[in-house]
Amino acid sequence: MCISSLIVSDGEWCNDKDSLKVMVEAVKFFHDMHSSMTSLGDPPSSTEIHNALLDTAPLKAPGHDGLHAEFFQRQWSVVQNSVCQMVR
């Protein structure tokens, strides 16, 4: 089966084969990425929470408590249990 056209975000039909190929590859990429992620029913592990924290820019906008991610990154050994409990 071959996809011959798709409706794009502006409501128009796209029939261009190269554009369709890019769109189909993008959909496949995000589908594969999403299906490899932990389902919403499974709480994240401490390692996953820590990795997400490490991926956060240290000095971007602070949280509602006024603390930047850098605080949690540097103090992980102290705050790990509390943060993981809150996330789960």
Could you describe the 3D structure shown?
Helices cover 55% and strands 5% of the residues. It has 88 residues and is mainly alpha-helical. It has 2 domains: 6-36; 46-87, no CATH class. The protein starts with 5 loop residues before the first strand and ends with a helix.
Question: In summary, what is this structure?
Answer:
By secondary structure, this protein is mostly helical. It has helices at 17-36, 46-55, 69-74, 76-87; strands at 6-7, 13-14.
Give the C-alpha Rg.
20 Å
Shape: elongated
Helical segment count: 4
Largest sheet: 2 strands, antiparallel
Number of domains: 2
Overall pLDDT: 84
Furnish the topology, listing elements before pairings.
Blueprint lengths: L5 E2 L5 E2 L2 H20 L9 H10 L13 H6 L1 H12 L1
Descriptive key words:
88 residues, mainly alpha, two-stranded antiparallel ribbon
